[in-house]
């Protein structure tokens, strides 16, 4: 399957975005040899800054295989940004609607056409306190198992030092380095031709996330936590803590009231 041409809109976006990225960030990019030269594939990338999609797109643009990102549908609707999103072939995600699955169908079609679809399996910026990848969502695994395409795990670090997660102001000085390490394809063959159950997708996703985390360990020269941060589990724990605190306050109030009546 041949590669898709980069096209006018992607080249135009590169002309606009590359100069500030070159000024703001040094580059330490490795693993380019693992990006397939031909055919459809997926890259699975960690997400730790609002600007890392631009920096990562810069990395992959330089390989000649431009990524098609999944992005919020609202970005496609108006003005120059919408025109650029449509023109560069990004894939709209319609959350909480009857079109919610259309993004996955579009991703499958893009891979079948020989394109690269870039997934942020975490689905949002990491909430891990130390910036490690969280547990992943199953979209990348679903597309990978249906198409049997290569899945390239990619770790990046440095944009989060320029603009930390959920921060509003960048830390411009000293100049930061954008480090990227692309690894060899994740071996998902043991999941092929099996019923695509929730448990199977969860297991395949864990394999993908583990590969990304290993790449990030190499970049950072550190070991990641054995158990990835799980936002769902954290929300459950937070609710339990809130309920326990409320119950403690209620019991304390009752005790005070009873003591007052005893007087």
From TrEMBL:
InterPro entries given in the database record: Plipid/glycerol_acylTrfase (IPR002123)
Biological process terms in GO annotation: phosphatidic acid biosynthetic process
UniProt-listed SUPFAM superfamilies: Glycerol-3-phosphate (1)-acyltransferase
UniProt KW Iron keyword: no
Source domain of life: Bacteria
One Pfam short name: Acyltransferase
Species of origin: Streptomyces tuirus
UniProt protein name: 1-acyl-sn-glycerol-3-phosphate acyltransferase
GO terms under cellular component: plasma membrane
GO MF annotation list: 1-acylglycerol-3-phosphate O-acyltransferase activity
Domain Phospholipid/glycerol acyltransferase as annotated: residue spans: 41-159
Keyword Endoplasmic reticulum found: no
Region of interest (Disordered), ranges: 219-263
Compositionally skewed regions (Basic and acidic residues) per UniProt: 219-240
């Amino acid at each position: 399957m041949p590669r898709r041409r980069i096209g006018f809109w992607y080249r135009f976006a590169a002309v606009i975005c590359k100069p500030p990225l070159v000024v703001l960030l040094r580059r330490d990019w490795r693993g380019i040899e693992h990006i397939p030269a031909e055919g459809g594939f997926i890259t699975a990338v960690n997400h730790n800054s609002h600007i890392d999609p631009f920096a990562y797109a810069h990395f992959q643009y330089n390989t000649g295989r431009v990524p098609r990102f999944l992005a919020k549908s609202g970005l496609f609707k108006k003005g120059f940004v919408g025109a650029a999103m449509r023109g560069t072939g990004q894939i709209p995600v319609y959350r909480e609607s009857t079109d919610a699955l259309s993004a996955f169908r579009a991703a499958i079609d893009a891979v079948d056409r020989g394109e690269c679809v870039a997934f942020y399996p975490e689905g949002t910026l990491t909430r891990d306190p130390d910036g490690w990848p969280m547990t992943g969502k199953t979209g990348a695994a679903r597309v990978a198992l249906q198409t049997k395409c290569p899945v390239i795990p990619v770790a990046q670090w440095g944009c989060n030092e320029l603009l930390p997660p959920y921060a509003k102001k960048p830390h411009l000085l000293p100049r930061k380095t954008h480090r990227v390490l692309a690894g060899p394809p994740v071996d998902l063959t043991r999941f092929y031709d099996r019923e695509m159950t929730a448990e199977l997708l969860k297991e395949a996703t864990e394999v993908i996330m583990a590969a990304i985390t290993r790449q990030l360990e190499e970049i950072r020269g550190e070991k990641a936590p054995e158990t990835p941060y799980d936002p769902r589990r954290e929300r459950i724990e937070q609710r339990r803590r809130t309920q326990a605190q409320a119950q403690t306050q209620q019991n304390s109030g009752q005790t005070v009231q009873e003591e007052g009546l005893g007087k």
